[in-house]
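Ligand: zinc ion. Inputs:
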Amino acid sequence: MLPALLVLGSGSMLPADPPRPWVGFHMFAPTDPASFLQIKDLVAKGLKPLGVNALILEFTSDSFAYQSVPELKPYARGVGKKEARELASFCRAQGVRVIPQLNCVGHQSWAETTFGLLKAFPEIDETPGQFPGNKGIYCRSWCTSNPKSYEVVFRLIDELMDAFQADAFHVGMDEVFLIGHESCPLCKGKDPGELFANAVKRLHRHLKSKRATMLMWGDRLLDGRATGYGEWEAATNGTHTAIDRIPKDIVMCDWHYEPRAGYPSLEIFQQKGFRVWPAGWRNEAATEAFLEDSRRKATPKMLGHLFTSWGGSPEQLLAALSAPEGATKPEGAGDWWSVGRVVRRFAPRVAKDAAFGARE
Ligand SMILES: [Zn+2]
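Predicted complex:
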């Protein structure tokens, strides 16, 4: 937290810099080095001119050339430390903070594909040997009770932190449905809220030891029934009680992608003492409603807005961000086209909105 006034040696007082809104952009990190380095153009020509000052890059246990866990077999010519350093120093010079992300606990598979972590270490799978082909589940999880989970994951986090020379890290933790599962000998019968809180605390303790700010998605900490958010953007599987058991200096990325009359999580997180970074997606009406509610409910813990993309290459995203007003959607363009419209329209507003700001 910055003091309101900075006291100078002479005794004169000057106002501190006004808080700076966090204007973020979230994207998947491309796995091909050439495409990955195209992010430099995306930042310099697309994002920065619109006021974006933070970039969250999401990796999986496959999509970076990790060196410290030989059991993992990342893509043969994948993105590694060299490319990460190049991008990080470029973004730093542009005034854009890069925050790497690795999904922890949940999202260890997508459709029938299980990611490298649980393939290399099946013993930390929360549902070992269950759900062949990932049929009948959303995504696999790693076990929150097994020390081996943290031993491996901390190494991956440390590598990403070092590669990007980052001062903050996003641990994901959204949409965790498999936790405290009956097929896990270590978690069976345990309270999902306690298991989830323990995972958050262990990750936080590790990042704190590196003097890094921890960010996470907020959905598992919200009561899906009491808030009316349901089981995706909030939890109905008991993890929400973790909200009172975890450190308050975690930045809560509160994602909601549909239009609503109000977003109760905005006041819940702030009242509990967390800084909140609301996150929207492709829907303009939803983003507008969410931004308005964020302004209305803003306390000094309201950071700004995080624009998510969930697809599109750096080239495609840059094309969408640079399109002239009224341009028609190209044939076959995905959600990235709509994302471009949302960011063009709203990022400059967030960047100069005095309701938002970083007060660390
Ligand atoms: Zn377990």
